[in-house]
């Protein structure tokens, strides 16, 4: 009996059961495994003797088995991964698709079991990725490469692996840089982009790979690299947001609802607690600034050299075969780099000049590029021809409203970045368009006026200046090229005002000294606890104040209110206004900037102070966003195309187009009809009285009609009364 | 009003149950199909009446493709057909090229069903061995020699197969190959080192080397009789294998031979500098292969072109595990023990002169 048991135990009939037994007790089944391993070897030899037309199904099964248990017998399977890699590397074009897929799977599995290091896996897969002809294999390899790197970086960043992989990718890109036919780099770009998007790689070395790719001679690789710089950070943000938001919030609200509706159980309660914990953790993470979240453009080494190379390689040469779209992409990137890093690439301005005509395709993108390539360190003589050309070509009587709008808007964008590029007579010509019939043109011209009211009111005509600008003109210094404004701590004025208010409150409650003392203590105390309710109460007060000021402004002069706070450096002067009007009577107002630095020079700012500043600024920004102002302009920001195109007006259209618009509005809307009719239509029902009346034979109704005509007044009255009675009873 | 009642009646009609009456036939259903007619003849649309039967060659070709058929009976039958056609043909003018036939037959060594394997074995035995001395075999030895590596690959595969039946049958094929081609089957890394490795795992003696003891055979049948039969056969073939590989045939050199040799070859080591008599002597270097074989693994798969190198391999790598396993079997006694003893004797005999030389 014992013997029978033993034989039953040892009898091996199929691989899955053997696999199961081996996993439980590897030493006992070593012999069985050895047989299978020799079997694998012999099958591999058979395969090598005849790679084509080989029935691969048993071999696939064998491969799967060995892979699954390879980690139990590391001494026997020492060469197994290398065998697989060799098979794949040398035969990947002739292998049967199933077998090929299995081989890749096995390698990935071995990696997951930590039998082989990640670098070995990637060194096998990457060369195949770049050489294989099979689309299916390529996508499989690509996904396994990306997911392997992701897994390796899941808990902590695996810097060593990242470094080696980046090195491989860099060398791949660099190798194919010179020749226009090498598309190997495309895969490197794709992998890098994916990993950047997932926030796995976010360092300068990654950016260096893409930089190399965007300087490659192959148009595809180049545009891949350029697109990375232009779009990837936005993608990353979107991905972050989408991954966070939906999951927790929805699930939490759902749980809350369920907790209210159905019975309370322990399970549900714990679920709820877990969800709340998660949410709290998320909130905490949100406030924690991630230190490595720079955009790709900021991480570039030597942006000046990069921009110059891009320009000279892809734009300046007239004989290259880039398509319009690709050239536009490069132009966009170069201009973005120039604006962001305040670079000097002189050639680009004359290059742009060529394309600035209304008939040019995609002219708005060229205008955007012109605006982006402008910053306050660009010599005005370079920009003057551009502005002159835009004014001549776009802004004249003969052109359509949209064209003039685009021209004026782009001039405004350029001048907002470099006001010195404009000369007085041209500006005064352009401002006359505020009387145009086209709404877009009017708005564009007004915004130009608003801009110059702030930066250089003396260039405007007298009647365009407005009251506040005229008043400021006396104190305002003339613009000079290359001048830098003195720096301040942004939001310091807001903090000072907040302190004033707090003091007032304290004085109202108790003595002044107590208030002073408390203030000092509170600064450091609040840092740990962050008493939210206290702070929020205070910044409501501030915002109220600001609103008052704005209202008073707008009474005086509407456009000036619009023009307020356009630039961050203007914030300072804004603050001046506020103070001047706020504390008008207190005679403290001076126009020197030292006033605002007083707080910074007299006391040390506590962390609590800084937190308050952040809050105040957030509140002020909210205020700004809600009030009508020109959007904040910065040379670092991208210029939006819609900003230049101006408001879109619907032109006169023919009847068909109008009808189509109407139909579009009706799409997905229920048909208007009575509710009763709809409910009746849904269910089977007997004929209603109304339906009966409608179907009633005409001849039968004739007698009734005759009788109606013949009845006497009294009779008529009785019927009417009865009807009224019936109505009342019915209700 | 009138119309609605009429409609009501119409609707009701569908649900009225037909009344059955005694002595009257049941009314037919609406969807009743009449099957009362009778056909006078069945007409076949198309019939091939081609007088020319397919040629022997085309039939053979067809049967070769049927060797991959999923139904085992078909495979067996096509093997039988091939055997019958070939046995009736002459050796000098075969109806099909051997380079087509033999590679197609080799994979059937690992066929999953026993009848097919037996059929294959009988086919091979009948066609490749001459029945009597006057007559040559139908498939010449040279053809088999050409395809020996291929047969060896499949025999290895069978020796290590997970199915015990296939493993048990595998040595029959090895025995056949040794019978037919002799030393060719044990030459080279594939023939010697690889096969020995398979032997070791087949007999379950891998543990002997590392001192973990012999587990006994991995031939598992629930029927002990069958078990014994299989192991008897294994030891028989092992003996044959070893004697082919490492026991040098004692060729009695006649006086004239020796004299001739000394006349023809002035130096005693001239043999070493002569053109080799066998083919592919540098096969173990794997000059044109892609995968690097496990040459370094204790020299198990090094060059095994001649008897001496084979002996060296066996003493370096396999001797200890072989001896331990065989001793264990010998102690068990019985018929199997006797067979193991015979193998052990061969081993002793083969390795003794070597030892004497060394000492």
TrEMBL record, chain A:
Keyword Nucleus on entry: yes
Database matches in Pfam families: SDA1_C (PF21638), SDA1_dom (PF05285), SDA1_HEAT (PF08158)
Annotated compartments: Nucleus, Nucleolus
Record domain SDA1 C-terminal: where: 685-730
Main localization, broad class: nucleus
Coiled coil: none
Domain of life per record: Eukaryota
Extent of Polar residues compositional bias: 10-21, 585-594
Claim: Transport is one of the keywords in the record: yes
InterPro entries according to UniProt: ARM-type_fold, Sda1, SDA1_C, SDA1_MD, SDA1_N
Span of domain SDA1 middle: 539-665
Bias-annotated ranges (Basic and acidic residues): 647-691, 712-731
Listed GO CC annotations: nucleolus
Keywords in alphabetical order: Nucleus, Protein transport, Ribosome biogenesis, Transport
GO biological process, one term: ribosomal large subunit export from nucleus
Biased composition annotated in UniProt, kind: Acidic residues: 239-249, 510-535, 543-556
The protein's role, per its UniProt record: Required for 60S pre-ribosomal subunits export to the cytoplasm.
PANTHER family assigned: HSDA/SDA1-RELATED, PROTEIN SDA1 HOMOLOG
Family membership noted in the UniProt record: Belongs to the SDA1 family.
The protein's name: Protein SDA1
Origin species: Arthrobotrys oligospora (strain ATCC 24927 / CBS 115.81 / DSM 1491)
From TrEMBL, chain B:
Keyword Thylakoid: no
GO cellular component, one term: nucleus
Locations listed in the record: Nucleus
Domain Pre-rRNA-processing protein Ipi1 N-terminal span(s) in chain numbering: 143-242
Domain of life, per lineage: Eukaryota
GO biological process, one term: rRNA processing
NADP among keywords: no
Bias-annotated ranges (Basic residues): 1-10
Pfam families: Ipi1_N (PF12333)
Chief location bin: nucleus
SUPFAM superfamilies: ARM repeat (SSF48371)
Keywords attached to this entry: Nucleus, Ribosome biogenesis, rRNA processing
Region (Disordered): 1-34
Family statement drawn from the similarity comment of this UniProt entry: Belongs to the IPI1/TEX10 family.
SUBUNIT field: Component of the RIX1 complex.
Biological function: Component of the RIX1 complex required for processing of ITS2 sequences from 35S pre-rRNA.
Full protein name: Pre-rRNA-processing protein
Gene source species: Arthrobotrys oligospora (strain ATCC 24927 / CBS 115.81 / DSM 1491)
Lineage: Eukaryota, Fungi, Dikarya, Ascomycota, Pezizomycotina
């Amino acid at each position: 009996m014992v013997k029978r048991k033993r034989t039953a135990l040892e009898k091996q009939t199929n691989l899955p059961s053997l696999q199961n037994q081996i996993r439980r007790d590897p030493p006992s089944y070593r012999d069985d495994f050895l047989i299978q391993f020799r079997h694998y070897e012999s099958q591999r030899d058979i395969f090598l003797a005849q790679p084509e037309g080989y029935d691969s199904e048993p071999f696939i099964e064998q491969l799967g088995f060995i892979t699954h248990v390879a980690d139990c017998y590391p001494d026997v399977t020492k060469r197994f991964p290398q065998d697989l890699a060799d098979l794949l590397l040398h035969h990947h074009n002739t292998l049967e698709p199933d077998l090929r897929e299995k081989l890749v799977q096995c390698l990935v599995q071995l990696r997951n079991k930590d039998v082989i290091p990640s670098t070995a896996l990637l060194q096998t897969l990457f060369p195949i990725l770049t050489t294989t002809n099979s689309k299916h294999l390529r996508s499989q390899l690509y996904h396994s490469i990306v997911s392997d790197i992701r897994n390796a970086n899941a808990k902590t960043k695996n810097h060593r692996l990242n470094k080696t992989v980046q090195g491989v990718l860099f060398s791949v890109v660099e190798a194919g840089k010179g020749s226009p036919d090498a598309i190997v780099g495309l895969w490197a770009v794709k992998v890098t982009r994916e990993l950047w998007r997932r926030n796995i790689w976010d360092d300068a070395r990654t950016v260096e790979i893409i930089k190399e790719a965007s300087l490659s001679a192959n148009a595809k690789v180049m545009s891949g690299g350029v697109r990375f710089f232009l779009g990837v950070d936005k993608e990353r943000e979107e991905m972050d947001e989408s991954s966070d938001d939906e999951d927790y919030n929805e699930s939490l609200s759902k749980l809350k609802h369920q907790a209210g509706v159905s019975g309370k159980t322990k399970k549900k309660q714990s679920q709820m607690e877990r969800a709340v914990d998660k949410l709290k953790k998320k909130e905490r993470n949100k406030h924690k600034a991630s230190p490595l979240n720079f955009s790709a453009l900021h991480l570039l080494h030597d942006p000046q050299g990069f921009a110059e190379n891009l320009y000279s390689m892809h734009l300046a040469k007239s004989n290259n075969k880039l398509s319009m779209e690709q050239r536009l992409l490069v132009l966009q990137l170069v201009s973005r780099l120039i604006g962001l890093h305040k670079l000097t690439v002189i050639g680009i301005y004359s290059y742009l000049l060529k394309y600035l005509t209304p008939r040019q395709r995609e002219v708005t993108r060229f205008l955007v590029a012109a605006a982006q390539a402008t910053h306050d360190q660009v010599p005005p003589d370079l920009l003057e021809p551009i502005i002159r050309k835009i004014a001549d070509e776009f802004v004249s009587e003969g052109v359509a409203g949209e064209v003039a709008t685009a021209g004026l808007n782009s001039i405004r964008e350029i001048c907002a970045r470099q006001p010195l590029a404009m000369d007085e007579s041209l500006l005064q010509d352009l401002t006359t368009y505020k009387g145009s019939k086209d709404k877009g043109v009017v708005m564009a011209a007004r915004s130009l006026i608003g801009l110059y009211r702030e930066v250089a009111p003396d260039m405007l005509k007298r009647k365009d200046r407005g009251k506040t600008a005229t008043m400021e003109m006396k104190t305002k210094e003339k613009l000079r090229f290359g001048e830098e404004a003195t720096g301040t701590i942004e939001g310091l004025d807001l903090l000072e005002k907040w302190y004033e208010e707090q003091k007032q409150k304290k004085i109202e409650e108790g003595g002044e000294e107590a208030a002073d003392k408390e203030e000092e203590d509170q600064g450091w105390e609040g840092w740990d606890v962050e008493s939210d309710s206290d702070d929020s109460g205070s910044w409501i007060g501030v915002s109220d104040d600001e609103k008052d000021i704005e209202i008073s402004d707008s009474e005086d002069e509407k456009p000036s209110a619009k023009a307020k706070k356009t630039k961050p450096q203007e914030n300072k002067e804004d603050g001046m206004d506020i103070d001047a009007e706020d504390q008008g009577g207190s005679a403290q107002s001076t126009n020197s900037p030292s006033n605002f630095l007083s707080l910074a020079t007299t006391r040390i700012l506590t962390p609590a102070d800084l937190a308050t500043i952040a809050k105040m600024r957030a509140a002020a920004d909210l205020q700004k966003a809600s009030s009508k102002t020109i959007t904040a302009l910065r040379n670092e920001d991208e210029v939006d195309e819609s900003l230049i195109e101006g408001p879109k007006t619907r032109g006169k259209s023919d009847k068909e187009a109008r009808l189509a618009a109407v139909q579009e509005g009706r799409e997905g809307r229920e048909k208007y009809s009575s509710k009763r009719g709809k409910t009746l239509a849904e269910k089977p029902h007997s004929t209603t009285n109304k339906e009966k009346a409608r179907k009633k034979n005409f001849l039968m109704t004739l007698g009734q009609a005759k009788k109606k005509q013949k009845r006497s007044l009294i009779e008529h009255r009785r019927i009417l009364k009865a009807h009224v009675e019936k109505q009342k009873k019915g209700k | 009003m009138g119309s609605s009642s009429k409609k009501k009646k119409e609707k009701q009609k569908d649900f009225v149950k037909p009344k059955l009456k005694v002595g009257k036939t049941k009314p037919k259903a609406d969807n009743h199909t009449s099957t009362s007619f009778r056909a006078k003849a069945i007409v076949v649309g198309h019939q091939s009446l081609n007088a020319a039967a397919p040629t022997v060659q085309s039939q053979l070709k067809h049967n070769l493709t049927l060797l991959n058929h999923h139904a085992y009976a078909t495979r067996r039958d096509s093997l039988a057909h091939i055997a019958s056609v070939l046995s009736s043909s002459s050796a000098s003018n075969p109806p099909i090229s051997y380079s087509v036939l033999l590679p197609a037959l080799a994979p059937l060594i690992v066929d999953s069903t026993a009848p097919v394997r037996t059929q294959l074995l009988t086919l091979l035995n009948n066609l490749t061995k001459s029945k009597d001395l006057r007559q040559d075999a139908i498939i010449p030895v040279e053809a088999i020699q050409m395809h020996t590596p291929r047969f060896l690959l499949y025999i290895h595969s069978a020796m290590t197969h997970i199915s015990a039946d296939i493993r048990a049958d595998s040595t029959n094929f090895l025995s056949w190959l040794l019978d037919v081609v002799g030393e060719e089957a044990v030459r080279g890394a594939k023939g010697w080192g690889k096969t020995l490795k398979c032997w070791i795992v087949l007999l379950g003696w891998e543990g002997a080397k590392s001192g973990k003891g012999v587990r006994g055979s991995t031939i598992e049948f629930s029927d002990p009789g069958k078990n014994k039969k299989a192991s008897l056969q294994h030891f028989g073939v092992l003996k044959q294998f070893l004697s082919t590989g490492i026991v040098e045939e004692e060729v009695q050199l006649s006086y004239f031979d020796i004299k001739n040799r000394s006349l023809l070859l002035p130096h005693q080591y001239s043999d070493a500098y002569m053109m080799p008599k066998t083919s592919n002597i540098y096969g173990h270097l794997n000059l044109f292969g892609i995968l690097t074989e496990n040459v370094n693994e204790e020299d198990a798969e090094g060059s095994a072109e001649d008897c001496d190198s084979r002996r060296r391999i066996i003493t370096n790598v396999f001797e200890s595990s072989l001896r331990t396993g065989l001793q264990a079997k010998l102690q068990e006694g019985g018929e199997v023990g006797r067979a193991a003893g015979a193998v052990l004797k061969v081993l002793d005999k083969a390795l003794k002169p070597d030892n004497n030389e060394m000492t």
